[in-house]
Amino acid sequence: MSLEILQVLALGRVSLVRDVPVARTSSQAALCNFLKGELDSIREAGTWKSERIIISPQSAFINVSSQKDKVLNFCANNYLGLSSHPEVVAAAKKAIDTHGAGLSSVRFICGTQDIHKELEKKIAKFHDREDAILYTSCFDSNAGFFETLLSPEDAVISDELNHASIIDGIRLCKAERLRYNHRNMEALEKILKETQKSRFRLIATDGVFSMDGNVAPLKDICDLADRYNALVFVDDCHSAGFFGKTGRGTEEYTETRGRPDVISSTLGKAMGGASGGYTTGPKQIIDLLRNKSRPYLFSNSLPPPVVATSSKAFDLITETAELVERLAVNTKLFRTRMIEAGFNVLGDKDHPICPVLLGDAKLASAFADGMLQEGIFVIGFSYPVVPKGKARIRVQLSAGHTLQDVNRAVDAFITIGRRIKVIG
């Protein structure tokens, strides 16, 4: 051990250890040198992902370390504005007192509390399903679903633009894996015809596709599934809790309630914004996941404060549809004014994901920086998050926004859009 390190340890100034040069092996040095070139190319392409530092609770207005004044946040998944809702925060604090900070265990050993079971019952009831199972994230719930349920005798048929968690989950299973063109029902039907010898066939789709804000044609998918005796799996992360007349998600919006066989979703967006995910469906499927799903069996259970925040969020949205209705009004205002101003706004007309298409990655990044100077927090999305040439600002409306907030955001878009000649 060097003299400098010994002096640091003796003085108790552990934070200074990072200033001591780190010796690298030749193989590590070679790898880091290779990665430096790759990182430089990302910067040159304008697709470098910088992280702005927030120094306040998540809300419609937030404090950012680089800005003196508060800014309006239009890029969070905080669709209902519940991330810092007083009742949600109070529920988390109470749960720490009554149930502790964490369980230090997976569910089947000693990691299941009464509040976990209560939340699972609320989720199943909310979706009108038989049972539900909690995970530490929806990424984990999707990672554990396909491998558990499907075998080499089966086939899984996936929309080509499904979320990465569905793609990765499907990669883990041994079923035949097939993709159909995005929301193309002719392509889906062709695959269904070609796979009729499979034991089980599962159609997997996002309910709402998060980068484009467009809705899966769920009625058509369910009709095809009925015709060809297939199952339907829907990831409803960007609709459960806030989309549809009462917030029941894509199946409510498309008038297909009860038809999808399995739904997965998240607790980390509309439902309190903390963390966690779930799968809900027939009891036999949920029981199998409890016994064989690897992310469930080998991950710590959700901590009590997270469970409590999500449980309170479900209580709030089942009592009244006020937040869902407010979000719909904000969405309509934003989309209407932006389109009238000349912007190309993607997605379904009723959905609060409103991607403003710009095309060029550097332009999207510069546009987002300009918006921040106007007091509006948005982020430029570029490759590999979206296809090359399809860079955009993904705006997300919230029930936490007022109409004045929405108008201010649109005004800022118009100001920056004219300044850099995106609109006339």
State the main characteristics:
424 residues, alpha/beta
Characterise this structure.
It contains 16 helices and 15 strands. The chain is of the alpha/beta class. The strands form 4 sheets. Strands 3-11-10-9-6-4-5 form a 7-stranded mixed beta sheet, with helices on both faces. Strands 1-2-13 form a 3-stranded mixed beta sheet. Strands 12-15-14 form a 3-stranded antiparallel beta sheet. Helix 6 (about 140-150) packs across helix 11. About 45% of the residues are buried.
Shape: globular
CA-to-CA gap between the ends? 65 Å
Total count of helical runs of at least 4 residues: 16
Major sheet characteristics = 7 strands, mixed
Which structural class matches the secondary elements? alpha/beta
Helix content: 40-55%
Tell me the quaternary state: single chain
- Mean pLDDT reading: 93
Give the DSSP E fraction (strand runs of 2 or more residues).
Answer: 5-15%
